[in-house]
Amino acid sequence: MDYRTHLTDETAKRVSRAIGATHIGVLFEHVSTAFWPSFSGVAVVIGLTLLGVHEVLPLGWRIAIWGMVALALAGLFVLGVWRLRWPSRAIAMSRVDATLRGQPLQALRDTPVSGASDPPSRAIWAAHMARMSTRVAAARPVAPEPMMAAKDPYGLRLVALTVLGMGLVFGSIDHAKTVAMTSSTDQIAAGPTWEGWVKPPAFTGKPTLYLADLGAGFEAPQGSQVTVRLYGDGASDDLTLRETVSGIGDGAAPDFKVAQSGDIEIDGPTGQLWSVGLIPDAPPTAELIGDMTRAASGEARQSYRLSDDFGVTKAVMAFERDVAAVTRHYGFALTPEPRPDLVIDVILPQTGSRTEIEGMFAQNVSEHPFSGLPVMMSLRAYDQTGQVSTDAIGEGILPGRRFFDPLAAAIIDVRRELLWNRSNATRAARVLRAVSYQPDETVGDGDVTRRLRAVISLIEDRVDPMSDERVDQVAKELWEIATLLEDGDLKEALERLRRAQERLQQAMRDGASDEEIARLMQELREATQDYIAQLAEQQGDQESEAAQGETQQMSADQLQQLMDRIQELMEQGRMAEAQQMMDMLNQLLENMRVTQDPNGQGGEGNPSMQGMQDMLRDQQELNDDTFSDLQNQQDQGPQGEEGEGQDRQGSDAQGQGEDGASDMGALSERQGALRRELERQRGNVPNGENAEGIGEALDGAGRAMDDAEQALRENDLGGALDRQAQALEALREGMRQLGDQLSQNQAQDQDGQQGQSGGTTGGEERRDPLGRFAGNTGQAGSDEAMTEGEDVYRRAEELLDEIRRRSAEQQRPDDERDYLNRLLDRF
């Protein structure tokens, strides 16, 4: 029974179309199964023909092979016809029916076996037919399934398609024209012909061009290699090559390079003319962006921009000493010794395009003789052909590591002057002896003292003049002594931290993988934790460490969050933001070391403590000025040793003596003013258990200042420096005991407040300038978890903006504005 009798016309047409499309697919299956060997053979023959494989064979062999190939293809076609079985429409119908629930097509063709005369049975059968008719409406074509893998287990059809693809991509239709021709001697006998190729330089990334496939004109990059081959009897007479693109005139040279626009012509019976346009290779460009800056780690940093039409291959940053910009005093008054420019290769990105590069040059050159001096810098870029950009010029002070220890800074100054001119050796030895006078008070470390004395002996060695090797040896030793004084026991931890930072920054520039970033971040975390732990060990007594434990823990949490953020940004590919966060981390670590209270005491913001800090700073500045005058005095040499009749006792020497006396008078007056200020500050010292100790320390500082003032009046700079050092030590001792006293008073105040009802009495007096109440520890601040949450960085930025806004309001009290400015200086 026909299934269409139960369907509407529209449903019947839809089902018929589905069966017809499926029938075509079944036919494709049968044809592909039967003829895939012959199809594969044809694909192989076409691919090999386009590649010109037949041209390597003599004509006789070629005819024989073509005959065998034709017979093989015919046999495969006959085999396919024999294997082909034409599929019936019933097969297609059964495939469509199999995709429907309950096989409704088959059900619609069924007839009832019994019950045809029974009305209930007829009703049930009619309902069944209606249900099947509804299901048939969902009929859709079924995709063919050739199942070729089972028919071709060795994948020969795929090999054939690969050969055909290679012929289409790399072959030429011209090879197909030579099927019945020879390619070598037989072809030559047939008459003159030619072949030619244009191969652009590899760095352009452009493909090789086949001259026969090109029209009357084309463009080629500068430096492209042109190769032309002429074939046939008397080819040199029948075919002539002319070209004007090489710039060396017309000729018959078969190989030449494109250096300019022009023509290439093969003149003869089968010749052709091409007009060639030159794609020039422009030189690269280099640009410096902004000024050179110094990172917290001491790196010199300079942003730059490079560009080239085909890609920059190399960039070099050079630094030349700017002698004209150097202040010519002290050891720099001498003419500098010639030194080669500092030339450093710029690290370019290893991945991505190099046609446009924006990056940052970062290099730590703290130990170089130019460090800390004015320099002229130039950036130069190169491309693949060796073309060089115009130098991008800038100027500035070549940054280097900062030394905060006074003795270490003085040693670095001596080192810089010695590298300026080795004739400063005598001066360097005198200064080193002066700064290391009474080493127990100025140096302290016995190993440093011995090394300083060894360096002085090396400088004063008169057996041979100061050779280059000895200058380098002295410079290296002075650097190591200065870093040892600056870092102390932190040196190894600090070096490990710097190495970890450098490796991570290199990974940023090279676009490292997420796994490499995670490994380097873990290395940085471990180095940072080790550095903080070592820093905590240098914090004075146990009470100070206990008092600062909570603050240090909070700092460690903040650093951990900062490093997590750096890793997140790097994994997201936001390297510029990650570099900014790295700079912030470096600055935090440096500030942690530089601004660390040497005795770990509180009291910041207290009038008495603030006054002591100001006095300590002023006394240190006075020491520096005294030391500078001592250097000038040593440069002038001893006066009066060669008799009164010499020129140095003339009017010029007398004038210098009067200036020196005037300077001594100004220094002694400053020292006297500091002594009087010390007496005034004595009245601000709070009462307590340490009051007597504080008084003794300040008395000692006052006596040392008196002695220093008297020494300055007598022009005894060496003695004045000794007394000033004693005054500084006594002031530091007084500040330490004052910090202890303030901490005790603060604890007592807190205990008293906790005994009051609710602990809120006097709350307004315990607010800090930002309006915050004292926390549970008694310190002005907040007990809230300020470093938790995803929005901590935005909150920190908002707080910093608020501090800046309040510090700029002139109507606020001076104490409050001073406190806010100190917060800005710290962060």
Helix vs. strand class: alpha+beta
Principal-axis shape: elongated
Strand content: 5-15%
Helix content: 40-55%
List the strand order in the largest sheet: 2-1-4-6
Number of domains: 6
Number of helices: 25
Q: Work out the radius of gyration.
A: 46 Å
Largest sheet: 4 strands, antiparallel
Low-confidence stretches: 183-190, 539-554, 594-605, 638-658, 754-790
Rounded mean pLDDT score: 76
Q: What is the count of β-strands?
A: 15
Tell me the span between the first and last alpha carbons. 93 Å
Keywords: Coiled coil, Membrane, Transmembrane, Transmembrane helix
Coiled coil: 487-595
Biased composition (Low complexity): 629-639, 739-754
Region (Disordered): 628-719, 731-827
Q: Key terms for this structure?
A:
827 residues, alpha+beta, Immunoglobulin-like, 6 domains, four-stranded antiparallel beta sheet, four-stranded mixed beta sheet, 54% helix
Chart the SSEs and their pairings.
Blueprint: H1 9-51, H2 59-83, H3 89-98, H4 104-108, H5 119-136, H6 148-151, H7 156-170, H8 173-176, H9 185-190, E1 193-199, E2 209-210, E3 217-221, E4 225-231, H10 235-238, E5 240-243, E6 255-257, E7 262-267, E8 272-279, E9 285-294, E10 300-307, E11 312-321, E12 342-345, E13 356-363, E14 374-383, E15 392-397, H11 406-420, H12 425-435, H13 439-442, H14 446-459, H15 468-487, H16 491-510, H17 514-537, H18 542-571, H19 575-594, H20 607-636, H21 651-681, H22 691-713, H23 717-754, H24 792-807, H25 814-826
Parallel strand pairs: 3-8
Antiparallel strand pairs: 1-2, 1-4, 4-6, 5-7, 7-8, 9-10, 10-13, 11-12, 11-14, 14-15
Helix pairs in contact: 1-2, 1-3, 1-7, 11-12, 11-15, 12-14, 14-15, 16-17, 16-19, 17-18, 18-19, 20-21, 20-23, 21-22, 22-23, 24-25
